[in-house]
Amino acid sequence: MTFNAPAPVLRRLTQAQYVNAVHDLLGEDLLVSRPMEPDVPLNGSISVGAASTSLSPRGVEQYEALAYDLAEQLLRNDTRRARVLTCAPTATVDATCAESFVRATGRRLWRRALTTAETTALVTLAGNAATTLNDFHRGLEFALAAMLQSPHFIFRTELAEPAVGAEPARFSLYSLAGRLAFFLWNSPPDDALLAAAEDGSLGTDEGLRAQVARLSASPRLARGLRAFVTEWLGLQRLDAVSKDPMVFTSFSSDVPAAAREETLSLAEHLALTRDVDFRQFVTTRETFVNRRLASIYNVRAPSELRPDGFGLVTLPEGSPRRGLLGHVSILALAAHPTSTSPTLRGKFIREALLCNEIPMPPVNVNTALPEPSPSLRTMRERLQRHQADPTCASCHALLDPIGLALEHFNGIGTWRPNDQGAPIDASGSLDRVTYSDAIGLTQALHDAPGFPRCITTRLYRFAYGRHESDGEEAEIGRLSQDFAYGGYRLRRLMSSIATSAAFRRADGGTP
Length: 511
Hints:
Elements: E1 9-12, H1 15-26, H2 46-49, H3 57-75, H4 78-84, H5 95-109, H6 116-133, H7 136-148, H8 151-154, E2 155-158, E3 160-161, E4 170-171, H9 173-184, H10 191-198, H11 205-216, H12 221-233, H13 255-273, E5 286-289, H14 291-297, E6 311-314, H15 328-333, H16 342-353, H17 379-386, H18 390-403, E7 418-419, E8 422-423, E9 428-430, E10 433-435, H19 438-447, H20 450-464, H21 473-485, H22 490-499, H23 501-504
Antiparallel strand pairs: 1-2, 3-4, 5-6, 7-8, 9-10
Helix pairs in contact: 3-7, 5-6, 5-7, 6-7, 9-10, 11-22, 12-13, 16-18, 20-21, 20-22, 21-22
């Protein structure tokens, strides 16, 4: 029987994955301070973009400089070197000791065992450099730098094994180990996961479940969760957020980073620490603030703070702020530099939280709103005038009623009682469910069937590194039902995806 394997999938490590790999495999005390090729999102997804980008000539130079810098940090320090070099060289050129280092370190960096030819080439490189520099350890730096700038480290290769009979093609066990680790940990496989791939136990249902349970119990699971939430909500875009300081006087350069940490901390708290219904992400009164965010929210800073200055607070019962839609991160992202934007906020809810597809505005359409005037004081009034244009009405009718529920929060998330001195009407409806204010919107979103289905879809894309095909809708539906059956616990959903038969298939199909 002829086996036509799917084309190998190459995904470049994201910047976060590169840093995690260095720290997990070589030591957390290494500084990854040099620039590297930037992440390139595709349709807003960094993980999908990673499978569609290569390296620029400048990027090649950056990875080379970074590789030599890391090799020097590791191998010119006695304490650090002892972590990766278990033998003592007997001469300037010691092929046996060099081979021991290359095989052990290469296996971890390249996420598989090295071939004899690969090992020989690296040992030879180390020996030649050691001869020239008259230093065994300096010679190893060249071998390590070669491994760090190799495509085998910078790119994730996912290869299929030949199908057996009528069985579908499956990923090789080394590839499966990488898929699991980068999904759950946003980092490469550790020694135990590589060993499970080598001895074949990862290829059994029992062995796979055992490894997923082990990975899910690790503190590193928080990194995988944070990477997912960052991508899902587009929090990486906070780095580029700017606000007019004349309009938003309380906004400063440290706000975006604090806003991102608040949202990620809450997601981790609900999904991992408490392991509760993740729909509470949009309705909870709990959140994490530092002193800067506490001043924006007009709440007392918590007395017990983490080392990074954040602490858990519960907003007052009468607070108009609830969950994700009350966070500075979302309210500032979905706004303009000088004003709010109900349209952008409604678009965020539709696309990120409900997975609705919103068409682009028609070419050459005028998207500018009428300027404030005595007859058009509030944003609602200006948008209603704008919708008089029939080319604008259809999309705005889908977005604006949702975004207007958040009009009490200005362009950086501070609550305000009115707009231009006029009362704010925050009422509206979400798919025929009416509400009177932002809290009503959060409850309507919590109860919307499309919300947990969208979370499932977004997590599926993150795990697979691509958008789903039409044939995978059934698998997403199955996972969504399991998500609901398990009480909408995100930790369980992550495990369900990782242990599914579909996750092991290399043909893009479903069972």
